[in-house]
Description:
The structure holds two protein chains of two kinds.
Chain A: H1 4-24, H2 32-55, E1 56-57, E2 60-61, H3 65-78, H4 83-99
Antiparallel strand pairs in A: 1-2
Helix pairs in contact in A: 3-4
Chain B: H1 12-35, H2 40-49, H3 53-64, H4 69-79, H5 81-90, H6 98-104, H7 110-117, H8 122-150, H9 165-174, H10 181-197, H11 205-209, H12 219-225
Amino acid sequence: MLTWGVVVVLAVGVYGQRALGMALINPKLMGDRSRQVLAMVPLSILCAVTALQTFSSRGELVLDARVAGIAAASLLAWKRAPMFLIVVVAAAVTAGVRLL
Amino acid sequence: MRQIPHGTSLRTGEAWAIAFTYFTVAITVSLVHSTAGTPTWVIVAATLIVNSATATLAYAAVTAAGGSVAAGIAGGWLTSTRFGVLAAALAPRLWPQRWKRALAAFSAFDPNIALANREEKDEDVRRVYVAMSLWLVLPWWLGASIGALIGDLVSDPKALGMDAMFPALFIAIIRPQLITQNARLIAVSGAVVALGLVEVLQGGLPFLVAALPALLALRNREDRKG
C-alpha cells in the first residue's frame, strides 16, 4: 500500500536518476565512441524489458499465455503491421489462450 | 491530440498506439494499487509525481510480499535505474541548456526515448521527444486517474491480456531498428543477458547490466582498424 510519504520518497529517487542521466552529466564531455555506444543503449534495454515482461513474472522465469501473445505480435511486427494492430492482437491472443 | 512533428519518422499511428497502450496499462496499474489498499488520491498523486509504474509496482510487490517500507523504496528506486541510463543515452542529442534537459528528464520513458533516438537530426530528436512525451504522459495520467476512481470494477486485467501490451508495443518499436547486423546482435544480447540474470539479481539490476551489449556498437570500428 502506497502512502503520501512513500510517494514523495519514490518520486525524489526516480526523478533524481532521470535528471542525473539527462541533465547533470555534461554531454559535451562525451566523446564519439561514448555517443556511439549510448545510441544503442535504448535498443539493448528495450529488448531486456521486452524479454523480461514476456518470460518472467516477479523475478522468476515463467512461460504463460503472454508468450503466445508476444509471438503473434512478433510475427505481425516482422510483417511490418501497424503498431496499434500489434498491441491489440497481442492482448487478444493472450486473453484467448487464458480462456482455453 | 494531432501534434505530430512534420518531417520526422514519427507516424500518427505510432503515437496513437503508444497513447492507447499507456492509457490501458495505466488503468491496470491503478487497479493493482487500489486492490493493495492504496487510497484513490494517493494513487493519482503517485502517477503524477513519481511518473513511473515500475517504481510504484515494485514497491507494492515488495511490501505485499512482507518486505519493509525501506526495502520497498529500495526496490522502487532500483527498478527505475534504467530510466537514468536511457536519459543519459539521449542527453547528448537534446538541448544544450541544462534546465531544458532537467525539465525533459521528468518524462524519460522507454518509447519516447527510443523513438526520438531514431531521428537523424538533433532538432528532430527534440521535437519527437517532446511530442511523444505528451502522447505518452497525458494518456498515462488520464488512465491512472480513471483506474483509481473505478477501483476494482474491472475484476481481472490479466483476463483481457493487458500484461502483454507493453512487451508487444516494445517489439513494434524495436523491429524497425533491427536493420544492421550489429543492432540485431545487441538486441539479442540485451534480451539474453536480462533473462539470464532475472533470477540472480534484484529489481532493476538485470536492466542495467543489459545496457552493456550496447558496447558492441564499437565492433565495426574495431573491425576497420584490424
